[in-house]
Write a structure and sequence with these properties.
Length: 101
Amino acid sequence: MSFSIRRSLSTLIPPKVASPSGIGAAQDAARMQRVVSFYEKLPRGPAPEVKASGLLGRYQARYFGKNPSAAPIVHVIIGLLTLGYVNNYYFHLRHHKNNAH
């Protein structure tokens, strides 16, 4: 076997990092035990789902969450129409309330 083939095979096989015997020394075994005990204390499984709070958070959870819908597009259209009418009323229509133009 040539050197390049042996080198390519050795990079595919990972070193034994997780076992204290692979590290060799006793002080490294104690250090490895601290690392293992740290990782044993970490929670397992998926993270718990965060409950939305606040007005914007609840809106996002309702319309952009697990079941997204097109309702926000309709809400934006209605909001723009309302804003346009209010703007038109304030700057023009309120002056013609009681008499014709």
